[in-house]
Structure formats: structure tokens, C-alpha cells
Amino acid sequence: MNSVFKALADPTRREILIMLQKDNLTAGEISENFNISKPSISHHLSLLKNADLIISERNGQRIYYSLNTTVFQDIVNWVLNFKKV
């Protein structure tokens, strides 16, 4: 869960997640929306993937990224079941 919250703490990664809500995208398509280097986008995608927030799938020469909705459901359940001690 810590890796999820660490990944969500960055505004660029949150913006990537918002983009992936609409469509599955390649790293190149994602990078077109930011004024940062492609290696930086790859780093953000790696952190999101390591937190299981996104899934990658190869289609020929391209790798498409999509949301892993299961993790988001787990986060919502955790928040809804959170109890103060």
C-alpha cells in the first residue's frame, strides 16, 4: 500500500492516471502531453507499474499502458473501512 500512496503523491503520475482513464496509451502518446523528457516519463510509468496502478501490454512493437482498476478498488475499500483508533 505504501508504494501506491508514494506513486499517487506525484502530480505528474496522477495526470498520467487521469489520461489512462480515457484510453490505453503508449509511453510516446503519454509523453506528448508533458514538457519533460521521455526517460522521465518512463520513470513515472515504472513507479506506477511497480505500485500495480497500471498494467502494460505489448502489441507488436508498441507497449500500451492501462489502469489496473483492481488496485483502485482495493484503495477505496481500505479508505471506506478505515477506522480511527
Automatic annotation (TrEMBL):
Residues 1-85 form the HTH arsR-type domain. Keywords: DNA-binding, Transcription, Transcription regulation. Signal peptide: none annotated. One of its GO terms (molecular function) is DNA binding. Gene3D superfamilies: Winged helix-like DNA-binding domain superfamily/Winged helix DNA-binding domain. This is Winged helix-turn-helix transcriptional regulator.
